Amino acid sequence: MEYLDLLLYANLQRAVQTTATYQPSGKRVPADGFKLSSCPPLEELRPESNQRYAWTDIGYGRLFADYYQSVARYAPERKIWYIYDGKRWTADIGNLQVMELCKALADKLLAYALSITDERQRKAFLESVCKWQVRRNRETVALPHG
């Protein structure tokens, strides 16, 4: 081993021995840690009957963007999502936080679908939003391509 490799190895060993748990230096906020009080209630957006939110990838992409506009924004010129952490907008490297938000919205849509009183509409909407429970389908909604 070269001197720098030995030095790096020694530092790594010392860090492992003195650290109880790994604490990454980056700040990551889980989806349930966002201030989502500024997100509009789904009852207000009415995704089951609002033409803006057609039951397609495009419609659900619009729903995601409208629902999370206060905490998540996509910058097409940079091809990256930004997440508001309460103080500033930070890049969501790897889209991890956006995917957590999408998963949370998928669960909210499922619960919302069950509250629809018209049985036919509830059944049809439920069938559509159940697709969000599959990661591959959430990716087409939250991860812009191009």
Task: Describe the structure using short key phrases.
single chain; mainly alpha; 3-stranded antiparallel beta sheet; 6 helices
Written description of the protein model:
- The protein has one domain.
- The longest helix is centred in the C-terminal third of the chain and has 19 residues, at 96-114.
- The protein starts with a helix and ends with a helix.
- 47% of the residues lie in helices and 8% in strands.
- It has helices spanning 3-18, 42-45, 57-67, 96-114, 119-129, 135-142, and strands at 72-75, 80-84, 89-91.
- It is mainly alpha-helical.
Number of domains: 1
- Could you say which overall geometry the principal axes of the C-alpha atoms support? elongated
Helix content range of the residues, please?
40-55%
Spatial extent as radius of gyration = 20 Å
N-C termini distance: 45 Å
Category by helix and strand content:
mainly alpha
Strand content: 5-15%
Contiguous uncertain segments of 5+ residues? 19-32
Brief synopsis:
The protein has helices at residues 3-18, 42-45, 57-67, 96-114, 119-129, 135-142, and strands at 72-75, 80-84, 89-91. It has 146 residues and is mainly alpha-helical.
Write the layout of secondary structure elements.
Layout: H1 3-18, H2 42-45, H3 57-67, E1 72-75, E2 80-84, E3 89-91, H4 96-114, H5 119-129, H6 135-142
Antiparallel strand pairs: 1-2, 2-3
Helix pairs in contact: 3-6, 4-5, 4-6
